[in-house]
């Protein structure tokens, strides 16, 4: 194994001509085949990440349209814009789209695009699995939206409580659509999580020890672990329990047969609470590089922020019962969950105070990303405070299931996830596209978005405390809820307008925006060391890292390790903790099988909504795909060096 | 106003007090952090240098110490919330021996209300309206016949879910006479938005009078139109679902109608209880309450007038 | 473009590795953690339903039969042997031995899958009769899907070795396949104890 740290051989500056020749060879080796087939079969994490981001943003727009429809209906008492059935489908689809089809996929998409670049790798650990995850997600989108357009959208809420979602009260296939959609998004999230964990563990640039991993990557890593432990709960609940109760008359939740209606709530919220942190922590991971870059200094408290992420992840799994405080539970149990729900505020506070300290001791420049960071602070802290209130059982029993909670959740999700996401999109748009997003239009977007968010959701706190429950398609004028609802709807229109401005900005800038170059912001991370957009192979040679802010700490030539082949797709594997180069690994070319297998998943899970035998047909079809996948990666390769388990390294042909 | 800002019971008042303390503390914290953040963001806006700042150990240590202090302050506030909240919750969980027990069962989409009595002939069954004496601790025993519902009257206490297979409870003591509105707070299907109820808190004497009257069976109708309405009622299948004590109508699937004319609203708080609204409801319930399980009755105008007249005698 | 300087070379690093030095091992581990955790959640749900029920299995369902499940458990224990020897053969890059042990493992694995039919029948209750039947069938069923996947993986690997010359990394894949096999067998043990033995003993 090569060792690091000794320049005893003397630094050799690489000839520009040699580098260019290697770059050309790598370009030929790593680029996709041309045309539609190459596009379909790509396993390039950047192509997949980009389309994932675009698709997830499209889902944000879809969820936003659903919200606009809801706000139109609720703007006036006893409005007849949407009937009860349509409204119930739309609020269910809004929640399901935002939580399952926008928020988590967007965060994992940003991770899949940027983590390899930030750790100095050429790709993710399992490129075909990455493609499979994306296509599976697309199948889920198709299922839900075909259902919505054909009046079969689920209508029992994004959390589908039993017994309402059992066959007796929800006949037909609407809830089955929901249950299977959850499965598709869960599979996609797990594929992304495994990829991120193994990429971060085994494929970091030489010298990137654990205390030099960028905080964006730390957040993605911690969240990937959370996905591994949270997603199986909702998949088990939705597919193995609810769908099974509905399709083959299982008795998980039927009290008459010794089932239990509360089991659903426990299983769902065991996933559901970590889910919101799965959405929130990656957004926090975006804040650190933005604050560092625009305050011109490394973040205060790197170690504290790492520990805060880990602590948040652990605590997140111990809070779920706070969604169930209105159910008959023992008092002692409730108090424990109150305490846990309060304690989790502390690691989040640590991160926030570290960023404020960074701004205070830095030289902040109020670019559009920084504005969104400030917007995040103002909005999220409001949501965090109402969250602390809701942790109190007596208060929660008044506010639970009312518009107070709707206000809280939107303040933390919009403030804590969407605003940092917009900050990140403005920050990294140049890296995705090579262009800068317009700053003028960006500022308009920011202010309208901030104002719109507050005008929409602040009145909802009052509405909830004034007696307005959630998930109602209309209300009587005599309740007095009319005026604040109208105000909220006006706010929603403002929000929508701000998003339209963002879309205009994106289209204009992508086509004719200012050229960004590799590093328009003077940022510290490795992703800014490559061109914008990056070449298919990311780095000509893997960079050697000796700090947590590589581009700020290197003067003169950038040290790299050479020796990876340019005629084959080869990546570098490093050791887990101190990132010493350890092995080379063959990375796959484009493949049709991930797309094919995603379609087979569709046959299995969508077919099972209609007849159980589709499971068998889909499984049989999948076997073909698994065979093909295995076959294409079992082509013999000439001359390999094998590190045998008991020590020696031998050459084998 | 059915709102936590108008508490009518010591339970609701305790929670509202907790709310105001948390709101005050939250406001101060939000303003404090926002001010510091804005100051931090704007302080050096004049300095255009783009050089990367390298920390000195003193700056780092001071910054760390301030962050630690802020985090400790946060922890102290959270601990205070925990203690205060637990104290309120614990106090609310203390129950009185001398209480009035009322059974409430949730259905899609109405509330069945039953008052037990030592004398089995004096059982009172009504719907969507709960009369209680002022100043007496009330123990609501909650259950559900179908899906999860939630009983919530913000003036009186927090909510409690009605879960099939479980028994839950809600306690309160109405200290001020009044009519307190509540609404189902757990999504239960198409007409979830139209499942309200009223808690009517009356001085003891009025309550006792109401209870005595409501435990009486229905009087047979005396005038001809109402008598015709009685026949219309019996002949159109109404007794299959509805009960009128003292008659042959004994259905249990729908609200008890023995004293329907004395209630303030119809269809679980959706309509004011007037003859016109009653006729509209009977003619086609699903127009007023989508998904209502009561079928439409397209009676002739004369039959409808008679039926309504009969029902209006059931005070 | 910043200039680059060569720090060191990685051209001599191995291109095929075993165990935690290989990505496939980590992928296999990830899959095991996810599926194992899913079974843990199902078992916890089973125990939750059990503690809130009265009799268990709820009357009139009898306790499950232990005869066939115990035989299958024994067969699973036996299957560890070919799995272990296949992994060792892979680690020695010994292709003839690997092919023999993969074939042996394939045969035992298919036998276990066939006997799984009797594992279901031994529950003596249908999945739609009560919560015990539901939970037991689903847990055994979910494990069966893991078993099926492992059998397919083993058969596939064996087939590939007989169809064409395999790359050197397939030796490492065979070791990972044995790794997954140990998990499939190992995770069955708590299922067997809780779902089959539990109702009789506790």
What is the element layout, followed by pairings?
The complex is a heterotrimer of chains A (653), B (315) and C (202).
Chain A: E1 12-13, H1 16-30, H2 35-41, H3 45-74, H4 84-118, H5 127-149, H6 174-202, H7 215-248, H8 261-295, H9 302-316, H10 331-343, H11 345-360, H12 368-391, H13 393-399, H14 403-433, H15 439-465, H16 482-512, E2 542-543, H17 550-553, E3 558-562, E4 570-574, E5 581-586, H18 593-610, H19 613-632, E6 640-643, E7 649-652
Antiparallel strand pairs in A: 2-3, 4-5, 6-7
Helix pairs in contact in A: 3-4, 3-5, 3-16, 4-5, 4-6, 4-7, 4-8, 5-6, 5-18, 6-7, 6-18, 7-8, 7-9, 8-9, 8-11, 8-14, 9-11, 12-14, 12-15, 14-15, 15-16, 18-19
Chain B: H1 10-42, H2 57-92, E1 100-107, E2 110-115, E3 124-127, E4 129-133, E5 138-144, E6 149-151, E7 160-162, E8 168-172, E9 178-183, E10 196-202, H3 204-214, H4 224-235, E11 265-266, E12 271-272, H5 275-283, H6 285-288, H7 301-312
Helix pairs in contact in B: 1-2, 4-7, 5-7
Chain C: E1 4-9, H1 23-52, H2 67-91, H3 95-121, H4 131-163, H5 169-201
Helix pairs in contact in C: 1-4, 1-5, 2-3, 2-5, 3-4, 4-5
Write down the overall geometry of chain A.
globular
Task: Return Rg of chain A in Å.
Answer: 25 Å
Counting DSSP E segments of at least 2 residues, the number of strands of chain A comes to 7
The N- and C-terminal alpha carbons of chain C lie at a distance of: 71 Å
Spatial order of the strands in the main sheet of chain A? Answer: 2-3
- The best one-word shape of chain C is elongated
Q: Largest inter-chain interface?
A: A-B, 85 and 91 residues
Strand content of chain A: under 5%
Count of discrete alpha- or pi-helical segments spanning 4 or more residues of chain C = 5
- Residue share in helix of chain C: over 70%
Global mean pLDDT of chain A: 95
Q: SSE order of chain C in H/E notation?
A: EHHHHH
The biggest sheet of chain C amounts to: none
SS element count, helices of chain A: 19
């Amino acid at each position: 194994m090569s060792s690091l740290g000794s320049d005893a051989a003397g630094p050799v500056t690489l000839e520009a001509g040699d580098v260019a020749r290697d770059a050309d060879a790598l370009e030929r080796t790593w680029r996709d085949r041309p045309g539609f087939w190459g596009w379909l079969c790509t396993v390039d994490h950047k192509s997949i990440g980009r389309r994932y981001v675009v698709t997830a943003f499209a889902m944000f727009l879809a969820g936003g349209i659903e919200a606009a429809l809801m706000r139109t209906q609720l703007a006036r008492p006893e409005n007849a814009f949407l009937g009860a059935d349509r409204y119930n489908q739309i609020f269910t689809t809004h929640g399901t789209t935002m939580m399952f089809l926008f928020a988590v996929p967007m965060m994992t998409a940003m991770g899949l695009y940027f983590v390899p670049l930030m750790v100095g790798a050429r790709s993710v650990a399992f490129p075909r699995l990455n493609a499979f995850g994306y296509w599976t997600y697309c199948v889920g989108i198709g299922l839900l939206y075909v259902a919505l357009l054909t009046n079969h959208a689920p209508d029992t809420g994004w959390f589908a409580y039993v017994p309402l979602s059992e066959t007796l009260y929800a006949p037909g296939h609407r809830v089955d659509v929901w249950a299977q959609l959850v499965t598709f998004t869960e599979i996609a999230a797990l594929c992304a999580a495994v990829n991120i964990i193994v990429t971060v563990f085994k494929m970091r640039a030489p010298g990137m020890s654990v205390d030099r991993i960028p905080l964006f990557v730390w957040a993605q890593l911690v969240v990937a672990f959370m996905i591994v432990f949270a997603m199986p709960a909702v998949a088990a609940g939705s597919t193995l329990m609810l769908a099974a109760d509905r399709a083959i008359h299982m008795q998980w939740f039927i009290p008459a047969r010794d089932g239990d209606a509360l089991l659903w709530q426990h299983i769902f919220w065991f996933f559901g609470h970590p889910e919101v942190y799965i959405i929130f922590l990656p957004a926090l991971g975006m804040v650190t590089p933005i604050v560092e870059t625009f305050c011109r200094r490394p973040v205060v408290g790197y170690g504290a922020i790492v520990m805060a992420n880990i602590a948040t992840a652990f605590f997140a799994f111990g809070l779920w019962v706070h969604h169930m405080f209105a159910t008959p539970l023992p008092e002692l149990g409730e108090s424990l969950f109150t305490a846990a729900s309060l304690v989790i505020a502390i690691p989040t506070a640590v991160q926030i105070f570290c960023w404020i300290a960074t701004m205070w001791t830095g030289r902040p420049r109020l670019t559009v990303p920084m504005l969104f960071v400030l917007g995040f602070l103002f909005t999220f802290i409001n949501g965090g405070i109402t969250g602390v209130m809701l942790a109190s059982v007596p208060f929660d029993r008044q506010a639970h299931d009312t518009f107070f909670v709707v206000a809280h959740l939107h303040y933390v999700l919009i403030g804590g996830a969407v605003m940092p996401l917009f900050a990140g999109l403005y920050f990294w748009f140049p890296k995705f596209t090579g262009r800068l997003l317009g700053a003028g239009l960006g500022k308009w977007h920011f202010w309208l978005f901030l104002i719109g968010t507050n005008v929409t959701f602040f009145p909802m706190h009052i509405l909830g405390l004034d007696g307005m429950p959630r998930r109602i398609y209309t209300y009587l004028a005599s309740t007095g809820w009319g005026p604040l609802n109208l105000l909220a709807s006006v706010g929603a229109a403002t929000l929508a307008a701000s998003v339209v401005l963002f879309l205009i900005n994106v289209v204009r800038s992508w086509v004719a925006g200012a050229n960004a170059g590799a590093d328009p912001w003077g940022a510290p991370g490795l992703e800014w060391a490559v061109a914008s957009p990056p070449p298919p192979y990311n780095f000509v040679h893997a960079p050697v890292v000796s700090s947590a802010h590589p581009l700020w700490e290197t003067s003169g030539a950038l040290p790299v390790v050479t020796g990876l082949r340019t005629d084959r797709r080869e990546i570098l594997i490093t050791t887990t903790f101190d990132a010493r180069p350890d092995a080379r690994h063959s990375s796959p070319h484009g493949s049709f099988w991930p797309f094919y297998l995603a379609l087979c998943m569709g046959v299995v899970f969508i077919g099972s909504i209609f007849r159980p035998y589709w499971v068998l047909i889909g499984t049989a079809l999948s076997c073909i795909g698994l065979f093909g996948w295995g076959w294409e990666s079992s082509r013999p390769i000439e001359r390999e060096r094998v590190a045998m388990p008991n020590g020696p390294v031998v050459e084998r042909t | 106003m059915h709102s936590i800002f108008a508490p009518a019971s010591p339970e609701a008042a305790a929670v509202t007090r907790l709310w105001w303390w948390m709101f005050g503390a939250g406001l101060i914290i939000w303003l404090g952090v926002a001010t510091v953040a804005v100051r931090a963001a704007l302080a050096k806006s004049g300095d255009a240098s783009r050089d990367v700042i390298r920390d000195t150990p003193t700056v780092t240590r001071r910054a760390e110490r301030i962050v630690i202090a802020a985090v400790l302050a946060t922890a102290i506030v959270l601990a205070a919330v925990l203690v205060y909240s637990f104290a309120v919750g614990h106090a609310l969980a203390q129950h009185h021996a001398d209480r009035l027990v009322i059974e409430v069962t949730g259905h899609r989409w109405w509330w069945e209300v039953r008052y037990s009595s030592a004398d089995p002939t004096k059982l009172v069954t009504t719907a969507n309206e709960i009369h209680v004496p002022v100043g007496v601790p009330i123990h609501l025993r909650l259950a559900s016949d179908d899906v999860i519902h939630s009983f919530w009257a913000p003036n009186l206490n927090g909510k409690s879910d009605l879960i099939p297979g479980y028994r839950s409870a809600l306690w309160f003591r109405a200290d001020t006479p009044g009519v307190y509105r509540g609404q189902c707070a757990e999504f239960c299907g198409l007409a979830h938005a139209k499942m309200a109820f009223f808690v009517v808190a009356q001085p003891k004497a009025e309550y006792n009078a109401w209870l005595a009257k409501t435990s009486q069976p229905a009087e047979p109708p005396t005038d001809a139109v109402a008598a015709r309405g009685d026949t219309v009622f019996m002949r159109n299948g109404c007794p299959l679902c509805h009960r009128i004590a003292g008659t042959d109508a004994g259905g249990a699937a729908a609200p008890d109608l023995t004293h329907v004319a004395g209630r303030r609203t119809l269809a679980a708080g959706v309509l004011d209880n007037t003859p016109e609204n009653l006729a509209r409801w009977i003619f086609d319930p699903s127009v007023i309450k989508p998904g209502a399980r009561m079928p439409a009755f397209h009676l002739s105008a004369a039959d409808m007038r008679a039926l309504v007249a009969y029902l209006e005698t059931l005070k | 473009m910043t200039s680059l300087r060569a720090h060191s070379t990685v051209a001599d690093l191995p291109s095929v590795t075993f165990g935690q030095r290989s990505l496939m091992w980590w992928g296999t581990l990830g899959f095991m953690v996810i599926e194992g955790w899913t079974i843990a959640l199902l078992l916890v749900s089973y125990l939750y339903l059990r503690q809130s029920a009265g009799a268990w299995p709820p009357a009139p369902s009898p306790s499950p039969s232990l005869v066939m499940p115990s035989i299958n458990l024994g067969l699973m224990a036996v299957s560890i042997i070919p799995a272990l020897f296949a992994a060792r053969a892979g680690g020695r890059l010994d292709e003839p031995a690997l092919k023999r042990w993969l074939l042996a493992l394939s045969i035992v694995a298919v036998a276990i899958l066939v006997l799984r039919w009797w594992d279901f029948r031994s529950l003596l209750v249908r999945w739609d009769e009560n919560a015990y039947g539901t939970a037991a069938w689903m847990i055994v069923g979910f494990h069966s899907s893991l078993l099926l996947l492992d059998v397919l993986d083993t058969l596939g690997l064996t087939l590939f070795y007989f169809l064409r010359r395999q790359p050197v990394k397939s030796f490492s894949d065979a070791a990972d396949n044995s790794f997954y096999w140990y998990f499939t067998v190992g995770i069955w043990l708590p299922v067997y104890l809780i779902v089959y033995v539990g109702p009789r003993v506790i």
